[in-house]
Design brief:
By secondary structure, the chain is an alpha/beta fold. It contains ten helices and five strands; from the N terminus they run ααβαβαααβαβααβα. The structure holds adenosine-5'-triphosphate (ATP), (3R,4S,5R)-3,4,5-trihydroxycyclohex-1-ENE-1-carboxylic acid and magnesium ion.
Length: 211
């Protein structure tokens, strides 16, 4: 009776190398093509729209890594409110553009959900970076965000009249959000998280298939 081991040693002595079943160059091209399709899913939208909330759950439900540009900044440089207070908004926008560029250009963040701060897409450099990315826009209205922003002092740009400021800022950014969006998620009215994330996932799967 011939054992499995004997078969393998025969194959080896006959000069067969199983590893060469696929040409290494071809294998590299397949892997690179695959990785290329796994660009991060970038979430944009106005303050308190739920970018971090939706992003975290999308990642948890479907097995993506989750990164939030605001969290990255806080981790490295301290609270957003302190940065605004000590160095001003322009400085904050520089740090923001830097961390976003780092994530988008890193080969380590291929299968990632990246939620951005509300104002990030207004920086020209960031808008340029997002042009060809899988950008999901979380669309809300002032009635939806009202309970989330009133009495919350963590967003320096919304002080001292959060509702008025939110509406003003949203109007000045709306067009940019719409231009960059590859998919718009209607999140008005505190929608159910499972439903919202499954709609985004469906879009991601379809767009990855199409590319
Ligand atoms: N669909 C929803 N249903 C219920 N609560 C929600 C929903 N979306 C967001 N929230 C809550 O609203 C608050 C603001 O959400 P989140 O921090 O995710 O907003 P954001 O878009 O990331 O804001 P920012 O621009 O400040 O980063 C959080 O407390 C979150 O849990
Ligand atoms: O919309 C904005 O300009 C901001 C939103 C937050 O996520 C933070 O990035 C910061 O408070 C600024
Ligand atoms: Mg956020």
């Amino acid at each position: 009776m011939t054992s499995h081991h004997t078969d393998l040693s025969k194959a080896s002595s006959a000069g067969n190398k199983p590893a060469e079943l696929v040409d290494p160059q071809q294998l590299r091209e397949i892997q690179e093509g695959y990785l290329d399709r796994q660009r991060p899913i970038v979430i944009i939208g106005p303050m308190a729209a739920g970018k971090s909330y939706v992003g975290t759950h999308l990642a948890r439900f479907y097995g993506y890594e989750f990164i939030d540009s605001d969290y990255l900044i806080v981790e490295r440089y301290g609270p957003v409110t302190d940065i605004f207070e000590v160095h001003g908004e322009e400085y904050f926008r520089k740090l923001e553009a830097e961390v976003i560029s780092e994530v988008l250009n890193s080969p380590h963040h291929r299968n990632t959900v990246l939620s951005l701060g509300g104002g990030a897409p207004m920086t020209a450099e960031v808008a340029e970076m997002l042009k060809n990315e899988t950008v999901v826009y979380i669309k809300v209205d002032v009635d939806t965000v009202k309970p989330r922003i009133v009495g919350n002092s963590k967003r320096p740009l919304l002080q001292p009249n959060p509702i008025e400021k939110w509406s003003q800022i949203f109007e000045s950014r709306r067009e940019r959000y719409e231009q960059l969006a590859k998919y718009t998620l209607d999140a008005r009215g505190h929608r159910n998280i499972t439903e919202m994330t499954s709609q985004i996932q469906q879009f991601v799967v379809d767009s990855r298939k199409a590319n």
